[in-house]
Design goal:
about 280 residues
Length: about 280
């Protein structure tokens, strides 16, 4: 079983067709949906046919209850602590499609003292860097990593955010990554500079519509093309869906090549569903 630890938040997506007019009004289209990198991975993994559990914390409020129920409806086994206030992220999507994230993670950062029973049956733990680089969720996540590793399970990490890693400290992050010792590290192109090639893990570098690059110890570099998907305006969550597809295939025994192709399919499916639904 795959488990994912981290954020379950509300995404407030603000789309604007012109640059924002400072100090006055700018017309926008605003939508709300379930978000959080960890929750996105869990939901996409369930959609891809995986058996998956989500571990996190939401507030003791109506929003937290709704988000947890919505995630469970995708087929995810949801295990959440409920204390405080549920977090949100404002996602500003500009006229060029570029995304600016304004996160308020609230209760998600406060995860701690996770019930060991929540790891029953888990053979792979996926940890976005968001879950490692704040406290107390960082300590809780490292404890979960140690428990899964002690049981013979595997670990993956998504670098998640250049800004978050740089605020934490790039050297500190690389040292932490060495301690966590993941089998797989996911990164987009800017994030890849924070995890140089040559580490002891498989490094999977996503580059939007460009080919996915893979390197790792004892293997020749791999480059796999991404089929074109016209009309995409908002790619929020595509990297999480890719990670989900990759992990479901890897847990099923697929090769790295097969796992990457599964990730590409999962990301394309998520984007196509979003375009069809207008969300």
């Amino acid at each position: 079983m795959l488990a994912v630890v981290g954020d379950l938040l509300e995404d407030v997506v603000v789309r604007i067709d012109v640059p924002p007019a400072i100090g006055t009004d700018t017309p926008a289209t605003i939508t709300r949906r379930r978000g959080g990198s960890a929750a996105n991975v869990a939901a996409a993994a369930a959609t891809a046919g995986g058996v998956v559990r989500f571990i996190g914390r939401v507030g003791a409020d109506a929003l937290g209850a709704r988000l947890a129920a919505d995630l469970a409806a995708t087929g995810v086994d949801v295990r959440v602590q409920r204390v405080g206030r549920t977090g949100s992220v404002v996602v500003l999507v500009g006229p060029d499609g570029e995304r600016t994230m304004l996160p308020d993670r609230a209760a998600a950062v406060e995860l701690g003292g996770v019930d060991p029973a929540w790891l029953h049956g888990v053979t792979w733990l996926h940890v976005p860097a968001y879950s490692l680089l704040s406290e107390p969720v960082g300590t809780a996540s490292q404890e979960l990593v140690a428990a899964v590793r002690a049981g013979g399970g595997s670990i993956s990490v998504d670098v998640s955010s250049v800004a978050v890693v740089e605020a934490f400290g790039s050297e500190r992050f690389r040292a932490l990554l060495e301690r966590v010792g993941p089998e797989v590290v996911f990164a987009n192109q800017p994030e890849a500079a924070l995890v140089p090639a040559g580490g002891p893990w498989i490094r999977v570098v996503k580059q939007g519509p460009d080919p996915v690059d893979v390197d790792g110890p004892g293997r020749a570099p791999l480059r796999i093309a991404v089929p074109a998907l016209p009309g995409v305006e908002d790619t929020t969550g595509a990297g999480d869906a890719f990670a989900a597809g990759y992990l479901v295939a890897a847990i099923a025994g697929g090769s790295v090549d097969e796992a990457v192709r599964s990730g590409i399919v999962a990301a394309a499916r998520m984007l196509a569903e979003r375009m069809a639904g207008g969300g």
